[in-house]
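Students often ask why inverse folding is considered easier than folding. One informal answer: many sequences map to the same fold, so there is more than one right answer. In these notes we will look at a single instance of the problem. The structure comes first.
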């Protein structure tokens, strides 16, 4: 059920002069068919992060880790961006400034046309040499689906390649974190489709609030962020964004 007061509050602040920052999580890609991590059908119900998404797991068994990433790459390759991705892409030139931050590694924002996406957790479409041999770039794009042999190998030193994602226990790219923090200095901050439990991504909304932004959550379920945001819209992203877009631009 659309809450007219929430939409009206948001619409009032989403003017062409507004500086807008959006952070998305797995929920924005749910309607595209990409599995989320938490919740009843989430990946972490069937798989253990410790076995698949840590540097230790990769050191122990790069084949097993790659089997999981190769499977996810195949799944994502078969998905298309949904209306929420498309609306967000169309908003990038509609405001005084617009920054899109994502925790997603699926690349669907870019496929919808979003540019300069700040990818906090990397990209499943990038790889790097696990030994960091220095003879290849730190990360590069490789769209191969599926890989013929797992794990794929560094073309220069033959060490296993690694997925270009951030694993649990690894540091985020400090430059990306810095740019995300700068983007919290905005007028409207939307937190979309994330369970808001993984930091530092989950903390950005607090920075935005301190900067005086109107903070808005879009998520059909409640999260640790729900109580602290100014406006919580408990509906799916693929419902909210086209509706907002119509209200703002038609
Ligand atoms: P989660 O799977 O933790 O949370 C997905 C959120 O999306 C939940 O709060 C759902 O209620 C919500 N959701 C589901 N369908 C939705 C829809 N159609 N519209 C809007 N919201 C919807 O995913 P993230 O919060 O993105 O990290 O997970 C954060 C990080 O934890 C991921 O980047 C990944 C994971 O472990 C790493 O791999 C480092």
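Output (designed amino acids):
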């Amino acid at each position: 059920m659309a809450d007219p007061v929430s939409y009206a509050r948001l619409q009032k602040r989403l003017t062409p002069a507004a500086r807008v920052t959006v952070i998305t999580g797995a929920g924005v890609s749910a309607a595209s068919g990409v599995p989320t991590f938490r919740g009843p059908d989430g990946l972490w119900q069937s798989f253990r992060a410790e076995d698949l998404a840590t540097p230790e797991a990769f050191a122990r068994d790069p084949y097993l880790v790659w089997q999981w990433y190769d499977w996810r790459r195949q799944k994502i390759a078969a998905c298309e961006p949904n209306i929420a991705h498309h609306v967000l892409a169309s908003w990038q030139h509609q405001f005084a400034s617009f920054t899109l931050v994502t925790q997603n590694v699926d690349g669907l924002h870019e496929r919808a046309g979003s540019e300069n996406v700040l990818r906090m957790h990397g990209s499943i479409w990038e790889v790097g040499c696990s030994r960091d041999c220095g003879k290849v770039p730190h990360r590069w794009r490789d769209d191969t689906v599926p890989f013929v042999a797992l794990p794929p190998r560094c073309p220069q030193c033959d060490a296993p390649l690694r997925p270009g994602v951030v694993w649990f226990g690894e540091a985020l790219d400090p430059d990306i974190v810095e740019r995300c923090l700068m983007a919290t200095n905005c007028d409207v901050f939307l937190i979309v489709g994330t369970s808001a439990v993984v930091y530092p991504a989950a903390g950005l909304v607090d920075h935005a609030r301190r900067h005086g932004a109107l903070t808005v959550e879009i998520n059909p379920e409640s999260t640790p962020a729900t109580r602290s945001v100014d406006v919580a819209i408990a509906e799916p992203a693929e419902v909210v964004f086209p509706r907002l877009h119509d209200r703002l631009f038609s």
